[in-house]
Amino acid sequence: MAEQQVNRDTYTFDKYCVIERWSSYWHQIKEILALKPDSVLEIGVGDKVLASYLKNNTAIKYSNLDIAQDLQPDIVGSVDDMKNISDNSFDLVCAFEVLEHLPFEKFGQSLNELKRVSKQSIIISLPHWGRHFSLEIRLPLLGKLRFQYKFNLWPIKHVFNGQHYWEIGKADYNLKTIKQAITETGLKINNDYIAFASPYHHFFILEKITSVKKHPEQGVG
What we know:
Distance between the termini: 58 Å
Helix content: 10-25%
Shape: globular
Number of helices: 4
């Protein structure tokens, strides 16, 4: 089980809730509402911006889980071992900037736990290191035209900084490796993208692959 890495003092407005993170919140809310869930479990309490929006502006039944008891989560536990939650308990389970706080060896295990407690959908975001080029043009009639590109000419080796054990784009953790690890757990990647105004955050919209039982053929008359 993971160990607590941050406390309530981490989530200050000037250091944590920077403008890029507000953009990330917009994507979190947008993707959740697009799936129209009746219930949502968020892994990681954070500064409770997402929780506040869903509770005050939607009819979605919201719950959260965190290993840090001082953050007062609804459920105390770790994403890699959610033993207090039954299978298929929530329509949607999300973990935004959470899974990199555990060693990569636990990435698959954590995804399997997310899949287990979700009825259908999972949304995650992960840090994506690298150089980023973005261009936005606003034109009359045409509106906004956007282009972005992320590249890593010389991937560096990740060094644990007290919180992140790994990041996409670092040596040994390219995007192909991450996608393969996701699909190996039986999850389908319906969409993935880098948030335009928050290019450090890479979103993945995932779906459980349910096996279809084949009925035995009827006897031939």
